[in-house]
Amino acid sequence: MTASFLLDLGIAVAAALLFSVLFYKLGLPMIAGQLVAGMIIGPFGLGLIRDTTSIDFLATLGIILLLFVIGLEMDPRKFGKLGFKIVMLTSFEFLVAFLVGFLSAFTIGWSLEAALFLGSVLGLSSTAIVAKLLTERSPEHQEGMASTIMMVLVLEDLIAVFLLFLTPELAGAGQFQPSSLVFIAGKAILLFGAAFVFGRYFGPRLINLVSQYELEIGEVSFLLALSFGFLFGVVSENLGFSPGIGALLVGFFLPMKHSRYVRGKILPLKEAFIVFFFLSMGTLVNASSALALGLPLVIVIVGAVLGKFAGGFLGARFAKIERPLLVGSILIPRGEFSLVLAKAGVDSGLVPSQLYPVAGFAVLITTLTSSVVGRRVAQETMS
Q1: Is pLDDT at 117 greater than 80 in this prediction?
Q2: Using CA atoms, how far apart are residues 353 and 350, in angstroms rounded to an integer?
Q3: 169-183: b or e for each residue (b if 16 or more CB lie within 10 Å)?
Q4: pLDDT band, residue 308 (cuts 50/70/90)
Q5: Which pLDDT belongs to residue 348?
Q6: Rounded to an integer, what distance in angstroms lies between the CA atom of residue 325 and that of residue 323?
Q7: pLDDT interval class at 79 (50, 70, 90)
Q8: What ranges do the domains of the chain cover?
Q9: What is residue 93's predicted lDDT score, i.e. its pLDDT?
């Protein structure tokens, strides 16, 4: 078991390194290279790795650490100032992308249930991929855009959680019960409340206490920083939400002075683990199944790109947020929640199994497209 795990880990790391360097040389996002590496070495590619359990576990750690760091980098004061604009932008861009995805599914002859699921899948941008792409852009673009985009993605993640809870209701009873919505809202309020109280009151006191021993016991600050993210990851998962959402919220509510301290401790570890997240996503994608669709796949992918780009652009224009073209280009990538929702629909029997590889292919193409379009738009807006 140990030898098999180490062999799989070695293959995964080597493939990630090779394709990251290759895509970097080609001027493409390294994330896409890691996705392609997972597709090639995974069970639907060369089959070099057939049991992805260990990599999936490392990927889960990576997404928790990534979203925790994202929360630490966000300023709640800015959210208060932009709250209404963020809600307007999120609502508009999600609905436009959903509608385009829904219509593209009808165009290729899919059922109403499959069209609704595809619309939902293509309505969700990737928090992980967008965050990674933002860090690869110049600081000039990050300062004016990153906080706004990440707040939009937090709201999208909440939409995704609601859809995930809705799926078993549709599969079971065939209709959604209002009591389920109340139950979901109650758990969400509990998670927000717990993260706020801990982040504002208990967390800073623990940091102040532990930091006194940093010179004598250097590891203690590192372990404390890790514990915050993983603790609320566990709390969030036990409440039925994604572990990453809990980690993001506790990071978001920490005061800025303390959040910078915690971020400095865990940033190197986050960079290492997040590679496994993108590799893991790639191993689950059956590219041949998606490519077998032919022209319908092209229609879906074009709809995925144009729907998000148009939705982000128009939403930013209505919300009066600067650089609407850049906002639209940044929001194009789909990712973790799109795949999770597609898998939930397939597993519940509500949609055909082909939806999942289509979603996986959409993740890859939209990630590549966002990088190319975003770079072009950024150059034009600066000139």
Answers
A1: yes
A2: 9
A3: ebeeeeeeeeeeeee
A4: very high
A5: 74
A6: 6
A7: low
A8: 2-129+147-382
A9: 92
Helix axes 139-172, 243-253, angle to 10 degrees: 140
- Angle 310-300-285 from CA coordinates, rounded to 5°: 115
Q: Name the 3-class secondary structure at 2.
A: helix
Residue 126 pLDDT greater than 50, yes or no: yes
Residue whose C-alpha is closest to residue 366's, from 315, 317, 328, 322: 328
pLDDT at 169: 56
Element (H, E) at 240: none
The residue among 356, 327, 323, 382 whose CA lies nearest residue 125 is 327
> What is the pLDDT averaged over residues 292-310?
89
In this structure, the chain runs to a length of: 383
Alpha-carbon separation of residue 242 from 152, 165, 338, 339 (angstroms)? 17, 11, 13, 13
Residue 140 scores a pLDDT above 50: no
**Per-residue pLDDT tens for 242-271?**
777 788 788 888 777 777 777 777 777 766
Helix residue spans in the chain (DSSP H)? 2-25, 30-41, 53-73, 76-107, 112-123, 127-136, 139-172, 178-197, 203-210, 219-238, 243-253, 256-283, 287-291, 295-319, 324-330, 336-348, 355-382
Name the CATH code of domain 2-129+147-382 (choices 3.90.25.10, 1.20.1530.20, 3.40.50.720, 1.20.1640.10): 1.20.1530.20
User: Which tokens sit at 283?
Assistant: 């191993």
Of 383, 330, 270, the C-alpha closest to 125 is: 330
Transcribe 252-315 into DSSP letters: HHS-HHHHHHHHHHHHHHHHHHHHHHHHHHHHT--HHHHHTT-HHHHHHHHHHHHHHHHHHHHH
Phi (first) and psi of residue 75, to 5 degrees: -110, 115
Q: Share the mean pLDDT of the chain.
A: 78
Contact between 359 and 301 under an 8 Å Cβ cutoff? The reply is: no
CA-to-CA distance for 290 and 304, rounded, in angstroms? 15
